[in-house]
Amino acid sequence: MKWTRQSLLESVKNRSYWTNTSYFKKLVKWAFNICDDQKKGSVTKAELYVGVLMVHLKLAKYFGPAATFPPTREVVNQLFDASDVDKSGDIDEEEFITVMIVLCSQITSRIVAYYTILIMLVPYLIRLIIGFLDFIGVDVAIMGVDGLFDKYAPQILQSIVGLIPDETWDTMPEMIVSLALFYLVIPICWDWMDSYFRDLAAKESVKQANIADTTKETKTE
């Protein structure tokens, strides 16, 4: 979905509650002042992306991993182009704030979704995956590999592996599945969710902008 200046403004009207808080306003102003290191009152496309990353890292300090999945460079560039109406290659502080509001509006729902998944879904999903692996015989294959290791591996390597407690080996499959979920599956899910809801918001904003334009034309006639 291609963003326009009008769709940006319409999206800001439907901003989430937390982007109206004083904390968010101070955070965005802090990010702008750091990015605008030359104090010219505007930032470039690259500086905007740096500002987005800084805001997300700052939020992650208080809200955890749910806030550490910033939008892609492509999305940020699209919003920059929509804000840079005069094509000067810079956007001012007000436009910077507008972009931040659009990008951060989904963080609240993301945090709720993240911890809901973390507490309610992930433990059951891990058990399901481990059970499936046992069902297809992965545990038998691992035992076979273990037998080959005991038979052919160098003695010094066997001694090093022997230092690892049995409890660690018992929980190793669960640890591997958990890491795969947190570092591969969940980030992909967040990217998809962000892309879907941002496109949805953009379409709604364009729709509202078109309605507003039609209303103006009707009044003019």
What do these coordinates show?
It contains nine helices and two strands, in the order ααβααβααααα. The chain is mainly alpha-helical and 221 residues long. The chain has a two-stranded antiparallel ribbon with strand order 1-2. Helix 1 (5-13) packs across helix 9 (166-220) and helix 4 packs across helix 5. It is elongated. The protein starts with a helix and ends with a helix. The model has no long low-confidence stretch (mean pLDDT 77).
Annotation field: number of helices:
9
Q: What does the main sheet amount to?
A: 2 strands, antiparallel
**Would you tell me the overall average pLDDT?**
77
Number of strands: 2
Radius of gyration: 25 Å
Helix/sheet category: mainly alpha
- Element pattern in H and E: HHEHHEHHHHH
Low-confidence stretches: none
* Residue share in helix: over 70%
> Gap between N and C termini, in Å?
31 Å
What's the assembly state of these chains? single chain
Record the strand order, biggest sheet. Answer: 1-2
User: Which strand-content bin applies to the residues?
Assistant: under 5%
User: What is the 3D form?
Assistant: elongated
